[in-house]
Design a protein that fits this description.
This protein has about 140 residues and is mainly α. The chain has 6 helices and 2 strands; from the N terminus they run H-H-H-E-E-H-H-H. Helix content is about 45%, strand content about 5%. It has a two-stranded antiparallel sheet with strand order 1-2. A hairpin with a 5-residue loop joins strand 1 and strand 2. Helix 1 packs across helix 2 and helix 1 crosses helix 4. The protein starts with a helix and ends in an 11-residue tail after the last helix.
């Protein structure tokens, strides 16, 4: 599994909004400047985060973006799935139930299902609040 630039930048944008959560709506140009990500690229990420119901927006002079929920209620998994679409390690796992003709007899499928389980549990265990409180080092995942 490889997280794309869109996923990485979406996470950085959401962390920035979490860091400034108590300041209301934040202008995209301010996030762009702080994160050294072009405003245009952030504008492309916003629709993905909106589909995940992770952002609130307002227009006008004091317009901008803010988190739709408290930082303690938004997980890394939610952000990455909104930006990436799916975290499954192989394409045959995109559908439930699995539509692959070979899934019943596939001896490798349990390996990928196990990987997906570990990845999603790990990303579910980290909230934006954890990240801004710098508690990520505590998330060394053990099986």
């Amino acid at each position: 599994m490889k997280i794309s630039t869109r996923g990485r930048y979406a996470l950085r944008m959401m962390i920035d909004l979490a860091q400034h959560y108590d300041q209301g709506f934040i202008a995209l140009k301010d996030i762009s400047k702080r994160q050294d990500i072009s405003k245009k690229y952030l504008e492309q990420i916003i629709p993905f985060l909106n589909r995940g119901n992770l952002l609130s927006a307002t227009k006008g002079h004091m317009g901008g973006y803010r988190l739709a929920k408290a930082p303690s209620e938004i997980t890394v998994r939610e952000i990455l799935e909104s930006a990436e679409g799916s975290l499954v390690p192989v394409g045959c796992m995109d559908n439930t139930p699995n539509l692959c003709k070979k899934c019943e007899d596939c001896i490798t499928l349990p390996i990928y299902e196990g990987l997906y389980d570990v990845v999603t549990k790990y990303f579910d265990s980290i909230t934006l609040e954890d990240i801004i409180n710098r508690q990520v080092s505590e998330f060394i995942y053990t099986i």
